[in-house]
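Subject: Sanity check before I submit

Could someone independently write out the structure tokens for this chain? I want to compare against mine line by line before I put it in a report. The sequence has 373 residues.
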Amino acid sequence: MARPKTLWITVSVVSSLCVYAQATPSFQGLGDLPGGDFESLAQDVSADGQVVVGGSSSANGGEAFRWNASEGMVGLGDLPGTSAGFFSSSALGVSADGSTIVGVGKGVSASPLFFPAQNAFRWTAAEGMVQIGTKVATSVSADGSVVVGYKGLFQNFDDEAFRWTAETGMEIIAPLRSFAEATSADGSVVVGWTNLTGEVSLNNVSPFRWTENEGFTVLQGGGFMQATAISADGSVIVGENRSGNVFGTPRAVRWDQEDSIHLLGLNGIALDVSGDGSVIVGYDTGDAAFIWDALNGHRSLLSLLEDDHGLDLTGWTLTAATGVSNDGLTIVGSGVNPDGLTEGWIAVIPEPGTCGLLFGAIGLHLTVRRREF
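---
Independent answer below. Compare away.
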């Protein structure tokens, strides 16, 4: 059913007040570290859109990287103590200015079998890569002081969500079999997912939110649901909902401050959200990167760059958008380049900019109303 004309009138009046950010549209592949097979995966972008982090194939093996426009891709190495032949690291999160990076490496074994286990790391230019414990660090606060992730010795059997600071070390913030995926800019809100039964099963997975004041709470949902990212102020959370269990069709979703769940109108997974919660990125079930905002809804990022902004991406397939800057203008992800090889990329779009921020409250209202028709 068509929307009432009054909705269109409201939108057109507000749009005349918008001032679009002056950004030049661009797209660039990030390249690859020297040595090894050509492969790179972008995992996150700094709040200012200047630094991209992820993993690449180097002469050493899989290696975490830091990329910016002036230096290109630079390998970060692996944790000290990594045994020969077990070199493997990947960067998963980055601070607001790109100076602190977190992820997973090998390092000193914590396994009773003495095989190099996964270990969480925190990297800075001054200290290099420092092991902060087992197992994976997924996200870091804006100033780099708070790190979140999950700890445990064996894959998926004893994981517990953690929050780390230099003063407190690793603090467990959720029950057994839980995974912290992201933190707000100030580190006071953490989101992720958990199996409250404590069983080795993916049929009853729930999203959670942890705050310094309220502690651990389960978000609205059911079946198989994950919270994957959070806005800078902690008010908007995004992720996925699968009906029944892990084998159900994923649907991209967001939660608001009232713990209300909203579908984004596509089958897929939301992986990151802009600082104010107005722009969401991820991938759909066709393995295509998407961008979502309340005004335009779900759009293919490849189509947006080519058809709306005239960029030539001939031969590229954009499989997933994994990170977005605070202003929603810079997006990073991974795909298949014209040579058929996996490569990370960075894209800049001149929207939604200021207009997207003005539409934030109105767009959410339209989303709710649109579902009623």
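---
OP: Matches mine. For the report I'm noting this point. The CA atoms of residues 230 and 284 lie 19 Å apart.
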